[in-house]
Every structure is written in C-alpha cells, then in structure tokens.
Amino acid sequence: MTIDDKQQEIIDEFSEINDWMDRYGYIIDLGNSLPPIDESLKTPDRLIEGCQSRVWLDATVDNDGNIHFSADSDAIIVKGIISLLISVLDNHTPDEIMGADLHFIDDIGLGENLSPTRSNGLLAMIKQIKMYAMAFKAKQQS
Known about the structure:
Blueprint: H1 3-15, H2 20-32, E1 55-61, E2 67-73, H3 76-89, H4 94-98, H5 104-107, H6 116-141
Antiparallel strand pairs: 1-2
Helix pairs in contact: 1-3, 2-3, 3-6
C-alpha cells in the first residue's frame, strides 16, 4: 500500500466521525493500539526535540531498504498522533518518506484542531521521521 493509499484510508475513516471529541477519542484509541516500544529504547537520543510531551521515536531499516518505526509518548493524544504518522510512513523507503506530502493532516482537520504546542510537536515528529529517512538514505549510498 502506498503512502497516498494509507493517507486516503485515514481520510475516509475520519470522514465518518463528525465530532472532534469523537475524533480525539479515535486518536487516543490509535495510540493505545500502538505496539509498545522496548523500554531500552526510551533514551534521551530518541526523544523528539520540540515536543512539549515526551515522545520517543526509533527507526530500523530492513534488508529491502524499508524503514520501520516504533514510538511511545507519555501523553495519550500525542501517542495517537505519532501512531497516525507511523501508520502512513512505516515500511517505506527513505525516498518515499522524504518525498511524502502528508496532506492527510490538513484533510482531516488535525492541524487546525491542535493546540499551538501540539502543532509544533507534530511538526517536530514529522521532521524527526524525515531525518531518520535521510540518515538511512545516506547510509545506503555509502
């Protein structure tokens, strides 16, 4: 499934939920379904800078060159947001991730329904995910 296919799937799911309180509940459910990150990965170097909440993000690359993400947060909404990002970008190549236009964020109204600090955190999460992709691409080329 492509990144755009996954984004459309999320847009379709959110289009069925009209009330933003219900959408927040759905985001929390997504966070609760995120597989737990190994406690040994909750290190300062995996903390995302720019998030008010604590968010740990780890990435590995498989033999096919696809990146796999794992994450956790101490805030339930933020954990749901990182879960959304992972569901879209996990198991894709560095080039696909770096070139992704994450339009689903605006299409579902997420950006406009987050507090300014959470919006900054969302941007920091996206930036960190794309930094991992750049690092893995550089490593593949060397």
